[in-house]
Specification:
Helix 1 packs parallel to helix 2. The radius of gyration is 17 Å and the shape is globular. Helix content is 12%, strand content 26%. Strand 5 and strand 6 form a beta hairpin. The longest helix is centred in the N-terminal third of the chain and has 14 residues. The N and C termini lie far apart (41 Å). 41% of the residues are buried. The protein has 3 helices and 14 strands. The chain is of the alpha/beta class and 240 residues long.
């Protein structure tokens, strides 16, 4: 059987709960969810830093869960460096026991696969427990899978090999190029950035709200998986 055509919406870094540094984050998430519905997407991917820190109120969590409840499609969430999956993680609060059934969260530091067999697609990601030079979001990547779409998710800093900056949660070009993913949904950078390597598509979606003094609206990454054309992705600006 041929693989199905699928549409993914990829976003990251909303930093909910930070009214001072990210005052438009709530509105931005509403726009992302609305656009996901309008674009008739099959999955929404959130590549880290949904929340700004683990001290935020449950009101911000309730707002997030209410937005996820607007969707009838699966939402795949990867924790980032602001919303770590360690022992005091925001995702371990009792309120998340009441999460909508369509919310799927990566929880294993060693990496895991979230599979939707009926859609012929698998998602892989490593939940970040510590933002440090010892954590590598894309290493080691899993073995190739066949007869299914394979999507990677990672939250970290892209760096050219040999730079040796000592920064935390590094992602290197060869890790992207040598992976077996059809698309890698990245988070951590505020601006949309295409860092595809070789035949592997890899994109930072950027945060979905306006950053700094830019004169353009926030954006997301729109990804179409086509069995004949492969992976087609582009920056998609949200309606103001």
């Amino acid at each position: 059987m041929p693989l199905p055509k699928l549409r993914l919406i990829h976003t990251s870094d909303t930093h909910l709960g930070d009214e001072l540094g990210h005052p438009a984050s709530n509105d931005a998430l509403v726009k992302v969810v609305s656009e996901t519905i309008l674009l008739n997407a099959d999955f929404l991917l959130i590549a880290g830093d949904v929340f700004d820190n683990e001290r935020i109120s449950n009101d911000s969590v309730e707002f997030f869960l209410s937005q996820i409840s607007r969707l009838s499609i699966p939402v795949i969430l990867l924790p980032g460096n602001h919303d770590l999956m360690h022992q005091t993680s925001i995702y371990r609060r009792a309120i998340f026991q009441e999460s909508p059934d369509n919310l799927y969260i990566f929880k294993k530091e060693s990496g895991e696969i979230i599979e939707f067999e009926e859609k012929s697609i698998k998602f892989w990601g490593k939940a970040m427990y510590e933002h440090s030079p010892f954590f590598h979001p894309l290493s080691p990547t899993p073995k190739q899978v066949k007869n299914t779409w394979f999507i990677g998710m990672a939250h970290g800093h892209f760096e050219e090999s040999g730079t040796n900056s000592g920064r935390s949660s590094l992602i290197f070009p060869n890790e992207i190029e040598d992976s077996h993913f059809d698309y890698i949904a990245l988070g951590h950078w505020d601006l949309y950035t295409d860092i595809s390597q070789g035949d592997t598509a890899a994109v930072y979606s950027g945060c979905p709200m306006v950053v700094g003094h830019r004169n353009e609206p926030g954006s997301i990454s729109l990804v179409d998986l086509d069995p004949n054309k492969g992976t087609i992705h582009k920056q998609w600006h949200l309606k103001s």
